[in-house]
Amino acid sequence: MFSRLFNASALTIILTSPLQAADDISKQPWSEIVEQAKQEGQVVWYNWFMQPRFRQLVSGFEQEYGIKVTIPDGTDDGNKSKFLAERERPEGDIDVMSIGGDNLAKFDIGTYFAGPLDFLPQFANLRTQIDGGDSKGYAVAYWGNQTGLAYDPTQIEEKDLPQTFEELTRWIKSNPQSFAFNDSRGGGAGSAFVQAAVRNTVTSADLAASNYAAAWDWFKSNSNDYGFTASNADSLTRLNGGEFKIVAAWEDHLAGLQQKGEIDKRMKFYIPKFGMLGGGNVVGVPANAKHKAAALVFIDWLTSAGTQEMLSKEMGSALVNSLAKSAGGSIPIEQRAFSTERLGAEQSVQIKAQFIEKVVLSQ
Amino acid sequence: MNASTLTGWRKAAIITLLLLPGIGLIFLLVGSVIVMAIAQSFGYFNLAGESVLSLDHWSGQLANRLLWVSVIYSLKIAFVSAIVSVALAYPIALWLRNPFPGSASISALLKAPMMVPGLVAAFLFINIISFHGFLNEALVGLGLISTPMRLQNDRYGFGVMFLQVWKNMPFALLLLTGAVQSIHSDILDAARDLGAGALSRFRKIVLPLTLKAMQGALVIIFIGAAGDYSFQMIAGPTKVSSLAQYMYTVQHEFGQWNDAAVVAIVLMTVALTGSLFLAAMVQFIVAGRRS
Amino acid sequence: MSRTRLNTILIALFLTVIFLWLAIPFAMAILWSLVDPDHAWSYPDLFPQKLSFGRWSEMWATTNLAGALANSYTLAPLVAVMAITLAMPTAFAFGRLDFRGKAIAQFISLLPLVLPGFVIALFFTSLLFKLGIYNKFLGIVVGHTVLFLPFAIRILSVSFSQVRQDLIDAARDLGAGPLSRFSVAYLPVLKPGILAALIIVFIQSIEEFALSFVLGSPDFTTVPTILYSYLGYNFIRPNAAVVSLILVVPNVLLMLIFERLLRSEGAVTVGGKG
User: Among residues B90, B85, B83, which one has the least CA distance to residue B167?
Assistant: First the structure.
């Protein structure tokens, strides 16, 4: 038993040095990697959202390469826990791992992922920085999403929708408990709104100095008039349940739930003029993946322009390949201009922590 | 084997052998895990970067108001859930002690909540108390209230406590039923014949004789409620976190692994000491009455 | 008030409570599970616009629900039996013997209960990986058994403490061998405890997510994986309702069986504290 305890402490040494495994594969020509992938014959992709839908949509890849794609059921934390816990296994179960862009700073990328992936054929067109996170080349973006406000057109008309932050403030005051956003611990839509509030109430000088007091004052002065829900899904459920008229939401999340019949299809989505952030997720190959070649070929397919256009059309994602062409979609193109970037990792964490401490817990 | 005849090293050897498969296994495996968690709280296993041995995580967290607010909240939830669950289970166990027509079905129905996964129970609960859920619609329909009430995520944690009791009362019932049934009717009859009232019989006979079972139920329910995450996430107040929720926040939202480990150790300590305190308090109250 | 009258009133009270406590939540769940996939149930409708079994067939066909059920219901009984077996000697020691260090041993027996979720998901699993238990099923069995031993130890300790010493002595004095002493003096009192411990460990194993997901996924999925998928980010309440109801049926059946077995003890007349 004691030797195992020492092994455990040896982890600390292992955790600080990157694995060499992927270097070999990065030196091979791409055609060889594809051949190897076909021989491997299968790839396991851990994604935490819309798995059933993705299972349908990857059939194109399966047919083209003859490689079977397994997308297991799971949850955001479950997948992350598995990913982190598997680190010491010589071979893990995960071949391709999805991570939210804003989560990239939370673990040491170089030791968990194989890479860097700059040898991928389309690497030049792909993003390694998204949603406030930087993958340092070890993971590439495959999914872009947009936050905004979901609303019930039977409760509020399009022309009455608040567009500027002042309009929103006035609207909240005259329609108490009709607007809601969620606790950041239950999903990103709420923290997207908090960042929007920060950007619209705090001067740029204060923002650079990390002084967010103006934003917390706004929240405190409006605390009786806005609703505060438990999670992304809770906001949308309560919109659907008629409790709120406007909620902060993810565009793709809303589309997915509408497709599954959880939320009524009449609900609409818009990006207000005061801007809400666009985020995204990245995929990488764990250092101990069993089917590295297949994983790389799959990532290449997933991030290709054609696949990106398909995902955008089918699931409402935003494009992350610079060569992909937008097919339009339910939101007018002009509104897309209001999309903003998430603030950097350090500031995002500060804002979250301060929001929880100064606004949520002090009431 | 008669316990009193065992002495010395023979006794020690036999005790060790008896404890090995259960306690021994726990000590080895869970002990190692706890050691790893403690190590992480001092800086090791920093999954986000370099591991540096440091006391800062401890000093930082112990000085953090959020931690202590969560401790008090979790203690409150745990105490109330455990005590109410057991308090509800006792009269039911006593009622069902002697079989009567229908008592078997009643017993089964009462234990049904054990079979419902906690997560499902929480969502069913939210469903019912939601703004346009069954409860509000019924009350509005009956004219008892004019507008729906906002019951979700109430600020005192009543939703969480209700769910804990809903889920745990059957467990307490299960433990207490066996204990209550093992009380020989002779004693209770004799006590009644001697003029002892129902409450007196309960305090002086039932409680002391079922003490161990009650303590077992209290301890297990307390620990479970102290470490609750999912009920809190779904139905709990937004203005205060449970310890497990705070731990999750530190870990997932802020990516501070070592601080999260500190909170984990605090959580374990709180759960253990709180439950043992509860058991001791109950022992004192019940044994105190004996004299 | 006579006993039967009191009973009748209590039963009436009970039925009202049960209606609120159980029937309504379940009715809601059933209603949600029947929501047609193409017509979401939203305000202001008091009832779903369209009911259909579409979700049931879709869930059964597209998710690995059958496999997960098979896995969970194979895993849980095994874990229950193992936990009881390993707990018996310790429970005997706790329930019937006094020794130095008993309090410490009892304290240690509580440790698995207090392990927080992420400690289990990250450290316990990596420990099991390191021990070389790469067979997923076995790893989860070991993990679950250790995690739920405290329940078995506690419940069985209480049972052991209820065994009457005078019965044991009488049996020995009458010349009975250890095995028959056990079946006459111990077993009748232990049976309710064993059954209670079996069912509680069983339920705990069926509901456990963190360990079974990290160790088992993707080859060995359990029911909680599917449940958490639909009740978390991808919160699709009708689908979750379907899974919950599918889960509840075998659980209730098992409950009834155990209830029948527990009942048959008629414990009031059998031994117990004098």
Answer: B85
